Amino acid sequence: MEQNLSALDRLRNSVHLLMNKCVQLETQNEELSAQLNNLTSKATIKQAEIEELNEKYKVLKMAKSLEGASSENKEVKLKINEMVREIDKCIALLNK
């Protein structure tokens, strides 16, 4: 009888330890999920900043090329047309 009680106590201890471990893992999972969400938000913000800087770089590069391209009217017109098409695409996306 004493052996059965001891086995029952060990089983209860094991179940209790497993339940505690489960609670710890759930807490850790929630913390990691929060960190993941935070890092995902930061990554999204950084990606938007990169895209904005790339656009600024393109505009700056184009402005520099336009400075020295006064004799190359055809290229200038093509670049301006490209910019207008990009602006039109942006406007179309905003209107959706």
Q: What do you see in this structure?
A:
The protein is mostly helical. It has one domain (2-95). The protein contains 2 helices and no strands. The longest helix has 66 residues, at 2-67. It is rod-shaped and about 100 Å long. The chain starts with a helix and ends with a helix.
Q: Give the overall form.
A: rod-shaped
Based on helices, strands and strand pairing, what is the structural class? mainly alpha
Number of strands: 0
Strand content: under 5%
> What is the helix tally?
2
Residue windows where pLDDT falls under 50 for at least 5 positions: none
Biggest sheet character: none
What is the string of SSEs from the N terminus onward? HH
Helix content: over 70%
The end-to-end span amounts to: 76 Å
Q: Report Rg.
A: 31 Å
Number of domains: 1
- Mean pLDDT reading: 86
SSE arrangement:
Blueprint: H1 2-67, H2 73-95
Condensed summary:
With 96 residues, the chain is mostly helical.
What would the keywords be for this entry?
93% helix; rod-shaped
